[in-house]
Amino acid sequence: MGDYVSITKDTLVEKTKIGCDLYLKSYINGAPKYVLFCRGNEQFESERREELLEKNVQRLFILSKDYKEYFKYQEKNLPQIISNSNLSTQEKSHAVYHVAKNITKDILKDARTGVNVKRVENWVKYTVSYILNDKNAFAGLLNVTSYDYYTYTHSVNLSVFGLLFGKHLFLTPDDLNAFGTGMLLHDIGKIEIPLEIINKPGKLTKDEFETIKKHPETGVAFLKAKNIKEKSLIPVIQHHENYDGTGYPYEIGGNEIDIFGKLSRIIDVYDAITTKRSYANAMRPFAALKVMKEKMISCFDVELFQEFICFLGPTDPRKHTRSGDLVPLVS
Fold this sequence. Notes:
CATH class of the largest domain: Mainly Alpha
CATH architecture of the largest domain: Orthogonal Bundle
Largest sheet: 2 strands, antiparallel
Shape: elongated
Strand content: 5-15%
CATH superfamily of the largest domain: Hypothetical protein af1432
Number of domains: 2
Radius of gyration: 21 Å
C-alpha cells in the first residue's frame, strides 16, 4: 500500500479536517499492520482524541505520499501548534521549519505563476511569536536547520537565523516580521538562473558569475508587484553587498548599507559555508567563523559580526563542540 511516516497526536487540532488519512500501528505475529483510524475528509473531534488517550496512543501514521498535505495542514494550524503546551520544543520547531520548507518549495516551483506573499508573512508572524514567547525556541530551531544546501533550505535557514539573531539584537516585532519575510525570499531571483549554473560543482566562469550577480535585482523586480513591504526588499537587494564596497549589485559600502543588509550578509555567508554544497563540504561553525574573521572580515560590519559570534556563543548549533572551539572577538 505504501510507506508510512509517524506524526504526533498533539499536532492534530480538534474540529479540523486533516486532509490525509490517519492510521494506527499494530503488530500481527510480529509484523506491523496499519489500521485506518480517521479519514482525511473527516473532522477530527474531541471524541477521537479521547479514544487515543484511552488507548495510550502517542503517535499516528500517514502515508509518506501524504506528507506534503500534512505540512499544508500544519501551516494552516501553526498558531495552535506552537501554543500547544503538550508539544515539545523539538516538535514545535520541526513543524515551524518544515512548514517554511514547504512554503519555499512551492514559491520556487510556482513563482512565475504567482507568489503568495501572505503565506510567507503569516509564517514569519507565527515564528516571531514563537521565538519571543518560548525560551527554548533558539535551541529548538537551530537543531532542525538543514546541513544540505538547496535554495529552499538555505532560504529557510536564513530566515530562522535572521529572526533569532534579530531577537538577540532587540529588533522590534515589526522589524522582525519585515526582516524574516525578506530573508525567506532573499534568493527568489534565482528562479531566472539556469539550474546548471546554480548547481555547478566547479568554479563559475566570468559569464556565469555575471549571471548569478543578477539575482538580487531580479528578485526585487519580481517582488515589487506582490505588495511586499519595502523593508522586506532590503535583504533581497543587499545580501551580497560588502561593507568595504566590493559587493553587488550596487557596490555600496559602510553605512550606505541598511542594517538589514549588513545582517543578511553575515548570515548568508555563515549558512552557505556551514552547509554541504555541490562544490564544497560543510565547515564546522567554529571553522566558518574563523574563516569569516580572518579572510572575509572586510565584507562585514565588524560590530555586528562580533555580536553574531556572541549570539552563537561557545556552543556549536549543528554539531558537538570541541575544546578550543571559541572564536576571539575582532580587535
